[in-house]
Amino acid sequence: MKHGKKNYELLYAECSRSTCTTRKEKNDGVKLWHETNDGMYWTHKSCKSDKDEFGIIGIQVAGKKLCLSILIRDMSEIHHYYHFHESEIPIQQLSPSVVTKFVETLLIL
Known about the structure:
By secondary structure, the chain is of the alpha+beta class. It has one domain (2-108).
């Protein structure tokens, strides 16, 4: 997002292959949390925005999963990281419910 003369990163993504280890998935999740936390710090530092005004979105693609998370700083300046939606990525022909949940995830994004 561009605000004035500055660009702000409000969405971060961490992706892996369609086959990944549990350890890689956890490490990428931690890396994504660090990226969103840094983004929140720099955005608040330069914008001087009100607390609890917006969040930084994190997207993690790990194996066949797509996870959406958000980092929000509350009025007490405490950061809260929520995993708010997850779906399976339909790589091959799957049941309609899996495809529907995946499309729902994309629409939320």
